[in-house]
Design goal:
Elements (H helix, E strand, L loop, with lengths): L2 E5 L7 H12 L6 E5 L1 H10 L5 H9 L8 H5 L7 H12 L4 H5 L4 E8 L5 E4 L5 H11 L9 E3 L2 E5 L8 H6 L4 E5 L23 H8 L1 H17 L3 E4 L14 H27 L1
Parallel strand pairs: 1-2, 1-7, 2-3, 7-8
Antiparallel strand pairs: 3-4, 3-6, 5-6
Length: about 280
């Protein structure tokens, strides 16, 4: 029976997912497919390389390093998060990402990004080299206005959460019969419309602008759908039991740690239910 672990993004709220993934790794729970969006894709990459501890240790270690996060760089035309530092320098020199182990993984691995010209989601599972993998992962985490689009395979790409933040239908299309979601917002959360949409058309193609304008509608509709499936026992959702301390952009280490710990505790508290779902 095909199983899938689907992990939402959310910037540094993704440390909630890091806590969940650490617990799953400790229990040796594996899935046939790993589907990640933005920060969720980063978390799953470290799980796939047998290095889940990197999900917490890297933000916690580098959060005060301007190479990692800098408002000054952003205000002068650069990326808010140091994309080159995070995706190229850290994993090759400061805290090595085990790409060889990643390539030997047993699970199929999918990264969700958004094509700027069409405004539609694109899904990558073929990585011809470490450099290709890096570019694709970087694209999935490149937020509008906060990072430059990534060129890869003849496409201009941005954050996967724009077009498919919770890829339920993609997982179903790929044949997943048991789907576990890690979300970064509590059950009562409703996404609001994006602000300053009038500025979007000055920077991005019209199709992407429409996707961004409708993002909150699509997100809330998907949440309603997975809530209904969860109520019928057809999927399993791990989500914050209360609003997370950390924001998308967060420098307070105590809040980062608390967010991670909340993820670990939430899955610990629902572990027996998860196993009943997976084994049914």
């Amino acid at each position: 029976m095909n199983s899938a672990l689907v992990v939402e993004g959310g910037g540094l709220r993704g440390l909630y997912g890091a806590g969940v993934i650490d617990f799953l790794a400790e229990k040796n729970i594996s899935f046939d497919m790993l589907i990640g969006v933005s920060m969720g894709a980063c978390n799953l990459a470290n799980l796939a390389s047998n290095q889940p501890e990197r999900n917490f240790s890297l933000p916690f270690r580098f959060i005060d390093d301007s190479r990692y996060l800098s408002y000054k760089r952003w205000l002068t035309g650069g990326d808010l998060f140091g994309m080159k530092f995070i995706f190229e320098i850290i994993p090759t020199t400061l805290d090595i990402f085990d790409y060889d182990a990643f390539c030997k993984r047993k699970s199929r691995f999918f990264i969700v990004a958004t094509e700027c010209e069409s405004g539609k989601a694109v899904y990558f599972d073929k990585f011809n080299s470490r450099e290709d993998f890096t570019q694709i992962l970087k694209s999935s985490c490149s937020l509008p206005f906060a990072a430059k689009p990534v060129r890869y395979g003849g496409k201009t790409l941005l954050d996967g959460g724009i077009s498919d933040p919770i890829p339920l239908h993609f997982a179903q299309k790929k044949g997943a019969q048991k789907i576990v979601f890690i979300l970064t917002q509590p059950k009562e959360y409703k996404k609001s419309a994006m602000k300053f949409t009038s500025l979007l058309k000055l920077f991005y193609p019209s199709a992407l602008v429409e996707t961004l304008k409708n993002r909150h509608i699509n997100y809330n509709k998907t949440v309603e759908e997975i809530d209904a499936l969860e109520a019928k026992g057809e999927i399993f959702i791990i989500r914050p039991s209360s609003p997370l301390p950390a924001r998308r952009i967060e420098r307070n280490r105590e809040k980062l740690k608390s967010t991670y710990e909340q993820g670990y505790m939430d899955i610990q508290n629902t572990y027996k239910e998860l196993m009943r779902y997976l084994e049914a």
